[in-house]
Design goal:
Layout lengths: L9 E4 L8 H10 L1 H11 L5 E9 L2 E9 L4 E7 L6 H13 L4 E6 L4 H13 L5 E12 L5 E8 L3 H12 L6 H19 L15 E8 L2 E8 L4 E8 L6 H7 L2 H8 L4 E3 L7 E8 L6 H25 L1
Parallel strand pairs: 4-5, 5-6
Antiparallel strand pairs: 1-6, 2-3, 3-4, 6-7, 8-9, 9-10, 10-12, 11-12
Helix pairs in contact: 6-9
Length: 317
């Protein structure tokens, strides 16, 4: 005789029972590290670093201003604890017109069909540097459990069509054999990471460059994976972009012995006193004709070690 299984019912909770005011309640809640991470996960983004709340950006004002640490580009978030309206649509259009290469996230309790279609249209007609998201937020509970937030992405960039458009414009024409080799290398690396996902980082889309960047949770600082076909080596590099006074480098250098013990390899500590940037590098000399999977495995293993050791220290600087 089959045993009956008792299941709980999922119920929706009124948003205003948790956040009475958008500016004083919802925005600070969303801007916390834990909750902005939930939003980033829902959007399929690596990370979002909150820079400010109710921030003036030139003549504009954003509910939350973030930076994508992997690209150092602005991410602006507009909140509504109600149905979407034309005023907020006008605001996101103003942001897009006034700022270069931004991601704009419009969060609301409910999107009308007209406003969802407007987000789709914006993604369709704009350059790939612009990204528009429509996100509905809801609160749910199971039985007597506390309410839990859910971000439902109902409109987003059509990444596949933009990648196809971009690739068809570029194709292999106009690129050197070396550039095409790099593109194929990073494409294979992205495929490897899809099959062997990391809990600590996500990859960028493949490019023709000799590098690809990994976010580490701080704007102006990231990990670069480098491919050097001339010297036949690959590199993992902690790159500090605007370290003019060498603050980041000097703080990290205090942990040199600990870092090399944790990572298990000697590192090249490059203060670069004559440049704005600084870096900490790990090299692997290799035969690039060998199995790329071996190189990708090395990239993954030591990138994770870099993140585990350096990320907590960087966040405190």
């Amino acid at each position: 005789m089959a045993t009956s299984i008792k299941l709980s019912k999922i119920t929706k909770v009124d948003l205003r029972s948790c956040w009475q005011n958008e500016a004083s309640d919802f925005t600070p809640w969303l801007a916390s590290e834990e909750n902005i991470s939930l939003l980033a996960d829902a959007l399929g983004m690596n990370e979002l670093e909150v820079k400010a709340q109710e921030e003036h950006v030139g003549p504009f004002r954003a509910d939350i201003l973030c930076v994508d640490p992997g690209t150092d580009k602005y991410v602006l978030i507009e909140n509504q604890l109600e149905k979407t309206d034309h005023n907020h649509l006008g605001q996101i259009l103003t942001y897009a017109a006034g700022l270069d290469a931004v991601t704009i996230i419009w969060i609301a309790e409910h999107f009308t069909e007209e406003h969802r279609a407007a987000i789709d249209w914006l993604n369709r007609i704009t350059d790939k540097e612009f990204n528009f998201f429509g996100v509905e937020i809801e609160l749910i509970k199971i039985g007597d459990s506390p309410a839990a937030p859910m971000f439902n992405v109902i409109a987003k960039p059509n990444g596949w069509s933009k990648d196809v458009r971009s690739s068809s414009q570029k194709s292999n024409e106009g690129h050197s054999d070396l550039e095409n080799y790099r593109y194929e290398f990073w494409t294979a690396f992205c495929e490897y990471m899809r099959n062997h996902p990391s809990k600590l980082f996500k990859t960028q889309s493949p490019t023709y460059n000799h590098w690809t960047n990994i976010a580490i949770g701080r704007s102006g600082v990231h990990i670069s994976l480098l491919l050097n076909t001339v010297e036949k080596k690959i590199t993992i590099q902690l790159y500090m972009k605007e370290d003019i006074d060498k603050k980041f480098f000097d703080e990290l250098y205090k942990h040199k012995e600990e870092a090399e013990t944790a990572i298990g390899k000697p590192l090249d500590w490059r203060r670069l006193d004559d440049k704005k940037a600084s870096s900490i590098d790990l090299y692997k000399f290799c035969d690039l004709s060998e199995s790329h999977e071996v190189l990708f495995e090395w990239f993954k293993e030591y990138t994770e070690k870099f993140i585990l050791f350096f990320k907590p220290i960087i966040k405190k600087i």
